[in-house]
Amino acid sequence: MALIVIPLVIIYTLLLGIPGILLCLVVPGGRALMPLARVWSWLVMRTARVRWKATYDPAFDTRHAAVYAANHQSQFDIPALVLAMPVDFRVVAKRSLLHVPVFGWALWLAGFIFIDRSNREQAIKSLDRAAGRLRRGTSVAIFAEGTRSPDGTLLPFKRGGFVLAIQAGVPVVPVTITGGRGVMPKGRLWIRPGTLEVHFGAPIETRDHTYETRDALIASVRAVIEGRLARA
Questions:
Q1: Chunked mean pLDDT (size 10), the chain, 232 residues
Q2: Neighbouring residues of 71: CB distance < 8 A, sequence distance ≥ 6
Q3: CATH says 2-231 is which class?
Q4: Are 9 and 198 in contact (CB under 8 A)?
Q5: Cα separation, 197 vs 85, whole angstroms
Q6: Is 196 helix (H, G, I), strand (E, B) or coil?
Q7: Helix, strand, coil: what percent of the chain each, to 5?
């Protein structure tokens, strides 16, 4: 199926990415791109015969901006998260995506945050910009492990997104994505039909945390995601 899906994804990216770039030039800020991003995600999931569903903790709250910290098992986590997110948001992504023609350009114009982990000074500046966006009311999503897990076991969490939440004074929402490994695990090109579930946990406040206690915040978020994965 991948031989059919991948060329179609490229076509979808061109057909929606180019208008997205033009929209971002006319309407700065990125809001104009997000509806197109959801259409792109729906087309990708539909083409691959992959379904998705969103579930929410009773304490989940969309009234305030937050850092949404998700686990990562499959390439399909990205379109599933885009479709499931109930708020306007931007993603913290690795800088290499910026160089993908059309796709990377559209994300940059939409205000997505690119992190160069090899350059600490530039990474800090990128996080500062992301903190400003959070303070202005736009949520930010991160894949806390920084890359896809090869076997579904949670990898160590990167600290940047959690420091970002502390710096901006916003809560962290644990997001657990399950089902992706059955559809397309890391290192495989085959795609199997299946269902991804995106579960949004209760917000974890950061107001009592400082840079020195960031590891305790990370441990709290990790425990929630691990618990959800264990029940999947």
A1: 79 91 85 90 96 96 94 95 94 82 85 79 80 90 93 92 94 97 88 96 95 96 96 83
A2: 77, 143, 144, 145, 149, 154, 175, 176, 177, 225, 229
A3: alpha beta
A4: no
A5: 12
A6: strand
A7: 45, 20, 35
- Does residue 205 sit in helix, strand or coil? coil
143: β partners: 70
Give the angle 208-212-217 at the CA atoms, nearest 5°.
Answer: 55
Q: What residues pair up with 19 in beta bridges, in sequence order?
A: none
Domain range annotation of the chain: 2-231
94-106 per-position pLDDT tens digit: 887 877 888 888 8
User: Which position has the token pair 């990562």?
Assistant: 72
C-alpha to C-alpha distance for 35 and 167, rounded to whole angstroms: 29
Q: How many CA atoms lie within 13 A of 231 on its CB side?
A: 8
* Global model pTM greater than 0.85: yes
Nearest Cα neighbor of 206 from 84, 58, 69 is: 69
Residue 172: partners with Cβ closer than 8 Å, 6 or more residues away: 66, 67, 68, 69, 161, 162, 165, 203, 204, 206, 217, 221
- Interior angle at CA 230, CA 152 and CA 212, nearest 5: 80
Question: 68 to each of 15, 44, 81, 120, 178, how far by Cα in Å?
Answer: 29, 22, 10, 22, 16
